[in-house]
Amino acid sequence: xxxxxxxxxxLRRSTVRIxxxxxxxxxxxxxxxxxxHVARTDRAKIETWNGRTVEAVLEKRDPRRDLALLHAPCDAxxxxxxxxxxxxxxxxxLAVGNxxxxxxxxxxxxxxxxxxxxGLGRHNWVLADLRLAPGNSxxxxxxxxxxxxxxxxxxxGRLALxxxxxxxxxxxxxxxxxxxxxxxxxxxxxxxxxxxxxxxGSPAARASLLAGDILVGITPGELHASIAxxxxxxxxxxxxxxxxxxxxxxRLRPAEAAA
Amino acid sequence: xHNSLTSLSDELAAVVERTGASVAAVYGGGRxxxxxxxxxxxxxxxxxxxxxxxxxxxxGLANGGAIASQLLGRDPGTDLAVLKIDPDALPALSAARASxxxxxxxxLAVGRxxxxxxxxxxxxxxxxGPAYQTWRGGKxxxxxxxxxxxxxxxxxxxxxxxxxxxxxIATPIxxxxxxxxxxxxxxxxxxxEIARRGYVAHGYLGVGMQPVAxxxxxxxxxxxxxxxxxxxxxxxxxxxxxxxxxxxxxxxxRDVQMFLTPDNIGRTVRASLLRGGERKELDLSVxxxxx
Lengths: 259, 291
What we know:
The structure holds 2 protein chains of 2 kinds. Chain A is about 15% helix and about 45% strand.
């Protein structure tokens, strides 16, 4: 017979403490998933269940989905993956983490629901009737068999919100060949898209786009389609009132992503 | 691997699926929508406090759509409101009533949310007490305090035990410490009352009373009698001490309040009182309080 204690102990072995306060989940050997708001820097100190401390390197980070992947050389067991789309309201869930400095603390509860939350974008969330506290962030939300169904991320009105495990899988795979230009845009009516910021090292920076350039003759919808469809994007923009055309390679290769 | 925790988990999720089919979202104009239960065919019961208007209250269904409803009435005393809906829009509650709830047993509050569909919170039944009167003046047939979190949108949620039996309807407003379940028996009674006449009637006597101590217990001394009221017509005068109604002793004004249920309206009851040190019996016909 298994109960909360057995399942919790299994979860603890795949849960790590990040920089003393946050939590993380060992997704695969050497790969730790946590919240982007926990992994804010390029390097982090990770402590596994048996007290071993290793240095981890940030591999990728998506602040919008609040997820981050760290590479950490440790031999703690990977968590068993679960299917967050199959969750049912009322089923039992467990959370393990390091809330308020308590290492490996367990909370139990049930699934409240699964879906979008008003004010938090279009993404789906796993909502749980379960008590979390700061320090649970990045840690596992698991079903009664110890399978990961979500990454505990925030508390809204005492309800626990977790990023669905399926969204984590998506984050890990899609980010491999993620397409990006590396600019922050603002739509200026009747003029175009004003570049507010160019991310250092991004395709836009390599094509020597500058803040203040105005992308023209292209609407946001078309921009999206062409980025998704073609690795090379032809951009028409005005700089100081003069028209320019430049071709930009927008596809990032895995090697570049990790660099 | 299949463990006992998973069996329990599966059972709880099945309870939510089974009973949640009869739970709807209720858009009553408040900041937060509420939940409501298709209690009897065509009658959807929700928490009265969550309705901020009397018209255009829409009812959200499992398929994401919403249907119109008509407010039949509300009873602030118990915090129940009844909406008339198309009986075929969602299945009516078929769950049995929980016959003998036990303190400490697992309960679920099953609600419905606009964006996420059916939702559930789990806890235990933390206190079971006798029938009582709420501070809003409604009579609840039992005090069922819930040790669970009633999240926004879950006022009016269905409270069920782990065998899918209905305990009642959840509301946060009757206790400062924790939500309570309005017992199924009370919901049956109040829903029938509202469906019949649009409100819950309260009995009326027309006396002001206060408790006094007597050598053999206590009673209620009459300190005012309203003109032409049932009490005046029965012959009550100031200074009478009421000691029993229908042979049942009264010690507190609450005992009289509990007596003034709708089914006693229009009945003539035997009032036992002390006047000038002597016992006297009066025939008292219970009136109805103005709405």
